[in-house]
Backbone:
């Protein structure tokens, strides 16, 4: 994978950690560098990341980066909504 930023990613995850830190992760929407972006691929990669953090992540919300609408919310690695 490579560098993904707020302009090229279709989804983003905002994660609040139990130690008080907060980070924003942007989705990796392409299978290869010249491939077409796939929102579902990027979304699933963000879900994998959140599940990997598990209970270290107190709350995580995945947003559609283009519209700003919340797609899913996680608490301690488990989906809430």
Residues:
């Amino acid at each position: 994978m490579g560098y993904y930023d707020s302009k090229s990613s279709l989804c983003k995850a905002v994660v609040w950690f139990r130690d008080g830190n907060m980070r924003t992760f942007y989705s990796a929407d392409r299978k290869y560098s010249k491939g077409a972006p796939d929102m579902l691929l990027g979304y699933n990669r963000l879900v994998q990341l959140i599940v990997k953090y598990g209970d270290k992540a107190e709350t995580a919300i995945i947003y559609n980066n283009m519209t700003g609408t919340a797609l899913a919310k996680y608490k301690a690695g488990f989906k809430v909504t």
In short: Residues 11-79 form one domain. The longest helix spans residues 39-53. The beta strands are 11-17, 22-26, 57-64, 70-75, 78-79. The mean pLDDT is 91.
